[in-house]
Design brief:
Layout lengths: L2 E11 L3 E2 L2 E4 L3 E4 L7 E9 L6 E8 L1 E3 L5 E3 L13 E4 L2 E4 L4 E9 L7 E11 L3 E9 L2 E19 L6 E11 L2 E10 L5 E11 L2 E13 L3 E10 L6 E12 L5 E12 L4
Parallel strand pairs: 1-14, 4-14
Antiparallel strand pairs: 2-3, 3-5, 5-11, 6-10, 6-12, 7-8, 9-11, 12-14, 13-14, 15-16, 16-19, 17-18, 17-20, 20-21
Amino acid sequence: MKKFLSILIALFMTSEAFASITVMPTRIELNANKSRTNYISTAVEVKGDKEEIMRFRAYTGYFKIDEKGELVMMDGQTAPNDLSKKIRFVPSEFNVFPRKSQKVRINIVGLNSLPDGENRTVLYIEDVNPKEMNLDTGRKGINAQLIVKTRIGVPIYLDKGKTTKKCEIGEFELVQEKGKCLVKAKLLSQGNSKIRFNSNIQIVNGKKLVKEQHGTEGVVADNSSRIISEQIDTTDIEAGEYTLRYVVTYTDENGKKQNLKEEKTINIKGEM
């Protein structure tokens, strides 16, 4: 008699596609101040397998963004700025036929009862019928059964009322070791809505640009921080004293670009 070990794997993805599921857009950002009604509407498009009918269900959950800029799912938890109970979507469960797509229409209601600043939720699109795979364990009489369930998450952000997007560089450190330069920074978001940023590292000698490298880009959550670590190779730079310039660019609540800058002296000794 064979014994089966069942393993359930739930795959959560925020990327455009995984396996046979594609959801577009991958992120939704809305502004309630542009709506003249007490609700705002949007939609996502779901594409399934090219060969078989697939059935999905849609539901929501709450999430936060951690210091690495990654989404942390807070399933079962809630907060004043959680949009989960404000969302109505149609259909909530549906079939997607081969080479076809299905729109899920989303209404966010009760805008006037939301707090000012950023409100958010994640819309899950999950296949109803998990895939089963039998695996050989290499042990006589024991097989493993792998159950794979795919779940794609689409973050939904809604700014409402008076929003602020303000950032500063809180900590800035430069570490040199064996021809490598490690830049460590802590970005502080002091507004009530997240900021999206990109960064750039420059090594200059007076007004001459010696080396430039594009750095991290991503998100800093509202009233939170983001830890950044960038490495730049200095082995191709002649020995001497230079200025290392770290520049962060983000867009504020008025759509205006803001630049943050930190500089430190860097001594390059050639072979280290």
